[in-house]
Amino acid sequence: MKRALAALLIALFVLPALALDEAREPRDMVVLTVGGLVGKTNRGPFNPKHDTLLAKLNAEFKHGFAFDRAMLLSLPQGTVTAKPVEFDRSATFSGPLLREVLGYVEAAKAKTTFVAPDGYAGWLSPEDIERSDWILALEADGVPLGLGQQGPLWLLNTRKEGEKVGEDNRGSHVWAVVYIHIGQ
Fold first, then answer.
1. 34: region left, alpha or beta (phi > 0 left; psi from -120 to 50 alpha)
2. What's the predicted TM-score (pTM) here?
3. Is pLDDT of 4 > 70?
4. pLDDT, position 163
5. Are 66 and 46 spatial neighbours (Cβ–Cβ below 8 Å)?
6. pLDDT-wise least confident of 95-104, 122-131, 159-168
7. CB-CB contact of 47 with 82 (8 Å)
8. How many CB atoms lie within 10 A of CB 172?
9. Are the beta carbons of 93 and 144 closer than 8 angstroms?
């Protein structure tokens, strides 16, 4: 009886932890694709016939990972309280920590580019990512960010007073992020 109980307890606690490490496919609408230098994949390479939006964004990759909203919510979350120019007042944004998303897909420590559906892009160096608690915000004050409302994802962190984005878009608060590319 004790052995059966021990086996049951092990199954209840160990198997779910192992399942989190498997690269599962999205079960719902994909809201983010990460391509480039990633070690964990759950989708095939870029396919211009299937990936029409990514084709318009000039994305190309051999290795990629597709996330649905539930997958992003299963990762460690962070919050940022900020008043971006697009909002009338401060809001608390929440979403997965960028370093957790990149760690989950085993991304190389390389230049990371964030791309919105209209082609706007910004980038961060590995040092930028490690130095700050960047999040891919899914919500503002508990309300999901929809398309046309800076969603599905908004790259945010808390900036110091007077800190601005450089002309090269490094550290940009890219909103409506749909694609992240790791590497050049």
1. beta
2. 0.83
3. no
4. 56
5. no
6. 159-168
7. no
8. 17
9. no
Average pLDDT, whole number, for the chain? 86
Beta pairing partners, 123 = 113, 170
Domains and CATH numbers, the chain: 23-182 (3.90.420.10)
8 Å CB contact between 45 and 62: yes
Gap between the Cα atoms of 101 and 91, Å rounded: 23
Are 66 and 72 in contact by the 8 Å Cβ rule? The answer is: no
Q: ∠ at Cα 64 (56, 71), nearest 5°?
A: 105
The helix or strand, by DSSP H or E, that contains position 110, with its residue range, turns out to be none
Print the SS3 string covering 8-49. HHHHHHHHHHHHHHCCCCCCCCEEEEEEECECCCCECCCCCC
* Rounded Cα gap, residues 81 and 10, in angstroms: 40
The CA distance from 158 to 81, in Å, is: 7
**Strand, coil or helix: 161:** coil
The DSSP bridge partners found for residue 68 are 30
